[in-house]
Amino acid sequence: QVQLVESGGGLVQPGGSLRLSCAASGFTFSSYFMRWYRQGPGKERELVAFISSGGGGTTYADSVKGRFTISRDNAKNTVYLQMNSLKPEDTAVYYCNTLYRSRNYWGQGTQVTVSS
Hints:
It is a single chain. This protein is mostly beta strands. The protein contains no helices and 11 strands. A hairpin with a 4-residue loop joins strand 7 and strand 8. The N and C termini lie far apart (about 40 Å).
C-alpha cells in the first residue's frame, strides 16, 4: 500500500533553515508527481510546492517563492523541501502528497515551528 512518511520538522528561529524529507513506498515513485502542503493554526491546508515525476518541473506558492526549493531523488524514493529564510508565518504542519490511481495520499505530517 502507498505510504508517505515525512521527517525533518522542528523548532527554528526566524531566518533559519530546515530540510523536510518524505519517504515514499508502495508505488512506482518515479512515475508520479509529488506535492508539499501545509496547514497552519486555524488555517486551511494550502499547496506549497509541486514537482513533476522526473523532477524537471516545479511550481511554488507565491508566499514561498525564492525561499523554498522542492527536489526529489527517484533512486531513494524521496522528495525534499528545503526551506530557507523561514518566517513565523511558515509555522504549520507540512504534508507530502501524491495522486495515485485517482486517489490522494497523505503522510502523517511534520510540525515546523518558526519562533524566537
